[in-house]
Each structure stands twice: as C-alpha cells, then as structure tokens.
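Step 1: inspect the first sequence and its tokens.
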Amino acid sequence: MKALALLLALTLGLSASALAAPKEIPKGSELRASLFDLSRTTVEREAGQPVKFSGSIQRLGDWAFFNGQIVNAAGKPIRLGQAESADTAILWKIVDSEWQLITCAVGISDVAYASWPDTFGAPAALLFPEG
C-alpha cells in the first residue's frame, strides 16, 4: 500500500516527504541548537531580552517547525503583546543546502501559522500533524 501511495505521489509531482509524518528533532541535538540559533536574534529583538525555547521542533523533509514558548533564563514564560502570551511559532526551510529562518510569530494567542502553507509553501502535515 505504501508503494502505491508513493507511486501516486511521484506521479502527481509530490515529494516522498509529503507522505511522511513529522519527526521530533531531539533535545540536545546539534540541529535543534542551530535552528534556535538561527532565530534567536529575531526573537530576542521582539522579546527585548535573552530567550530560551521550550517546546517541540518537528521536521518534515526540508522543513522544520517550532511550536512552544519563549522563556527566560529561570524558565519563566516571557509574555508579550496584547495577549501577554509566551506562545511562539517558528518556521525554517533548507534553501540552497542550508537551513534558513522563514518566519516566526512571537506572543501569539491564536493559530498564527494557519496561513503558512499558503504563504510559504510549508507542508500542512508539519504544522497540523493531526490532520
């Protein structure tokens, strides 16, 4: 059955990663650290202070997505904006063989990334893995 689905995807011009499930990038991994480092300057500029990231980074093919919170050195949420929220979403993609920060939303109170599949071409299966 998987072979048939892959053949259909290739026939329709879809990548094999479009059929795969997102995978968590492990805590402590070099990739996880480098992705956070790519976005740290942008997020810290919005937060007005140094940040740490608490949450999940999922990868699907050439894409990675963080959904979690920004916290201070003591692990307390850094609440921003009118919503006073620490919730943060970050999107990266491999471009020319290197990870690039595509966009981020900090201090969100809703699903700020709902338009990212249409706006940036991110796989919906990465942003909304439950379907």
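Step 2: inspect the second sequence and its tokens, then contrast the two.
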Amino acid sequence: MFVSRFVIEALRAVAGTGLPRSLALACASLVALPFGPPVAIAAEPEPVVAPVPTLAQLADPEWIAAGRSKFVQTCAYCHGQEGDSGKVRPFRERKGWDPQLIHDTIVNGRRRGANVMPSWKASIPDDLIWKIVAYIHSLEGKPRH
C-alpha cells in the first residue's frame, strides 16, 4: 500500500487520541493529496504456523509446564488456572477432546451468542499455542487438586 509521508505522520499524531483510525486516515489522505510522492508501508507479516505436534509431544512434561505458565498468564482470567471457570464446561470434564480443535479455537477465537473468545493468533506464537493445548489436554478427565 502506498501513502504519503504526511499521512504516516498524521496517523502517528492521532494515535492514542481516541479519534478512529479510519477517520484519521481519511482526513490525512485528503490533506496529503498535494504533497510529495507516496511511500510504501510494509504489510504485517503473517504469523508463523508451527507443525502439528504428536500426542507424545503434547504429553511432554516440559510442554505442559510451558503451556501452563502461558495459560495462567493469558487465559486464567476467563477460564481459571485449571480451566474450571468461565462460561464453558470445565476442561477436566471433557473426554476425547481433539487437540486440533483446542488449537483452532485459541488461534481463531469463537463466538456463541454473547459468549466471545478472542483470537490469539496475533498475540501468541503458534508453537506456544500448541504448548497451551498440551496443558489443556493434560487436564482432560483428571480430578481437581
């Protein structure tokens, strides 16, 4: 995408002011028309997709520990530290939960009526999402401590 340097500076100037970015971009673009040549803005890179791990990798204690750490940091606010809170069935009550489905839900988020889980693909690297999956999967069918 090409825009003038003036547009870039205008967007930086309105950042954090509460003015909608689209409105700022439209105004800055109109004002910038008579100014200088356009410059290229690099597109955000696509997230790196990690290979699907084996069940043995998902059962690895190091993966589970790393996943638990990130889960507690990122997910526990809604789901509790052991996946027993929130608006979904506790993770420990689930049986035969497909790791790919868990992964895809974390990556893409989901919406069920007013129940919304955001997409985490732009915030958490895919290899770390798989470690969160390992932790969630480790809870499956186990009694609460």
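Step 3: confirm your contrast with the notes below.
The radius of gyration is 21 Å. Residues 61-74 form the longest helix (14 residues).
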